[in-house]
Amino acid sequence: YLGAFLPVVVIIWGRMIFQSLIVLPLALRVHGLASLRLVLTPLHALRSVLLLVPTLFFLEAIQRIPIADAVAIGFNYPILVTALSPFFLKEKVGPRRWIAVFTGMLGGLIILRPGLQPLSTGALLALGSGIVFAFHLILTRKLSASTPASLTVGFTSVFNLLILSAAMPFFPLPNTLHLWLWLGFASLLAIAGTYLMVRAYDFAPASVLAPFGYSEILFASMVSYVIFGNFPDLWTWVGVLVLVSSGIYISWREHKGIPERG
User: Fold this and answer.
1) How far apart are CA 24 and CA 110, in angstroms?
2) Are residues 79 and 243 in contact, defined by beta-carbon separation less than 8 angstroms?
3) Which residues on neighbouring strands pair with residue 114, listed in sequence order?
4) Residue among 148, 127, 137 nearest 76 (CA)
5) Three-class secondary structure of residue 245 per DSSP
6) Distances in Å between the alpha carbon of 112 and those of 53, 56, 162, 213?
7) From residue 184, how far is each of 13, 15, 27, 180 by CA, in Å?
């Protein structure tokens, strides 16, 4: 909705203003001012950028292609995290999980269908969003043991706000109370979603929660159809089924702690 009135970069900038004003003060109240030393590091700065870039890519993608298609294409990151974890996190990935990874990538190719249909700019942006977000999750996993989640979210909001503020003189800013209210509402939704996700990880391991993330594709399809009248085609759903099945299989084996040979 906001994309019809404001550039994507301005929408994210507005969200970062509200998130910075809400999250960081609460985090500092809980953890104290001295806790800032935990996030004032190059790795946390890199993590912030690795969240900003896919956010920009994804919001730009949904200006060009239906939301459900963008979510389906961008949802390659759970598979990519598994593929990258042996190299960056030194985690063991056995042959069965590698088969699941490549099967998931096949699902992504079915969704994109390169060669059978032109790859639009929106599709490439959604694909790039998922790839960069996978690196963000890898780095988040490395840093999560040493930094409280609220402090990480607060620092990320302020850091990305500073980056985006440097570009604001070149873009039209929100000039009505109506737009600022919508930006505030979008920020509250983002904060609530992040908080619920963090709380969920307090009650269950990541391997159990991961499959629930795929419900995003279903809800995105519903929203896209109800509000915009768009619905993914049959081959997109086939690709989603392959991709989701691979991700759930990987999560199931990790949750069961099934050892793999090789």
Assistant:
1) 42
2) yes
3) 117
4) 127
5) helix
6) 21, 20, 35, 20
7) 11, 7, 19, 6
In a 3-state reduction of DSSP, which class is residue 31? helix
pTM value is: 0.80
Annotate 161-217 with DSSP letters as a single string.
HHHHHTTGGGSPPP-SHHHHHHHHHHHHHHHHHHHHHHHHHHHS-HHHHGGGGGHHH
For 58, the token pair is 């994804």
* Whether the Cβ atoms of residue 140 and residue 47 lie closer than 8 Å to each other: yes
Amino acid at 49: V
Distance CA 262, CA 259 (A): 10
C-alpha 30/C-alpha 24 separation (Å) is: 10
Report the sign of the C-alpha dihedral through residues 118, 64, 9, 194, in that order: negative
The domain spans of the chain are: 2-256
- C-alpha distances in angstroms, 73 versus 95, 210, 227, 239? 25, 17, 20, 9
**Alpha-carbon distance 65 to 125, whole Å?**
10
Q: What is the pLDDT of residues 195-246, one digit of tens each?
A: 776 666 556 555 455 556 666 766 777 777 777 777 777 877 888 788 778 7
Distances (CA, A) of 189 to 182, 193, 194: 11, 6, 9
Per residue in 135-179, pLDDT (tens digit) is 988 888 888 778 888 888 889 999 999 999 999 999 988 888 888
